[in-house]
Every structure is written in C-alpha cells, then in structure tokens.
Amino acid sequence: MHKRLIVPHALFQIMIRRLAHQLIETHRDFSNSVILGLQPRGIFVADRLQATLQEILGVTVQTGYLDITFHRDDFRRRSTPLAPNATKVEFSLEGRRVILVDDVLYTGRSVRAALDAMISYGRPAQVELLVLIDRQYTRDLPVEATYVGQKVNSLHSQRVEVAWQGTDSEQDAIWLLTKTPDQEPHATA
Q: Where does the Phosphoribosyltransferase domain lie (predicted)?
C-alpha cells in the first residue's frame, strides 16, 4: 500500500480553525445551532470543532454523536453484521440548525443515512454538512458539503485515512492510500 501525505499536521490545524471561522460567519453565536458528529470518525472532527469554537468564542456549542448503522442502505446486505456505535444526542433537533460533521465525504450514502437517523430527534430548521475531505468524482448520491476542509481527486480504488493525534498517531494528518500493483487482483486467462 502506497501512502501519500495530503494534509500534514500544520495544515490540519489551520484547516480546523478555518472551518471553525466559516461556521462562526454563518452561525454567529450558535444559540440555535448544534453539531452532530457521524459515528465512528466524524465524532473526532465534531469534538475538535467544538473545542476550537469554545476557544475562539468562549461559548460551548451543543455537540452530539449520531450512529447511522441501522439506517445504512447496505445494512442487511453484508455477510457479517455491523456493530452499532453509541448515539449521544441529548437535545432536540426540532427547529434547530444542524451541522452534520464527518471526516470524509465519499459516496454520499452515509450522509443519506444520517438524514434518516436524525429525524428521530426532531425536525431541524436547516441541515448543513461539514467534512474535512471531499473526495470528488466518487458520489453515488447527489450530496454536497457546505463546508469543506480540502477537496481531493481520488479513484474508487484509493482510500483516504484521517489520523488523529492521540488516537491513531503522534500527529494529526491525512493520507491518500493507493494499492500497489502487487496488491491488485490479477486477471486470469
């Protein structure tokens, strides 16, 4: 597997702050706004954004975690069942402005599942999507992020890996992984 660093630690920090400032421009004091991180990896983005907004504004933005496992369109098609993650939404979404947060936007199917899962907590006034990485040209559904850290041209055969300091690695970083030729399945005659 070939790994190419696409967002080093310093740029990662700048990206998080830029996204926080973009949210401030739109949501001002966050009095009617909430952040929902999609399980499993979007919660790291949500927590980092909440901490950055707290640092900049001095206010705590309500933040929750949303599990989409049972709303996925491939839930019953898998040979092994998916293990659900914890949902932590301790507030109503009724009439609120919701910022859905995930690390990577790929096919759009997770976002569709999140929209279904979210309705259990009320009908929001508005839903926006924030992602660290937007994998362009890979959409199965017409989903577009409102806030994007960085757009990446990638193939379906590639993978984007977000490494979080303290969880996955020593520093925050984002990598593009490409299978090497010896890992590709060989065609037989």
A: 11-153
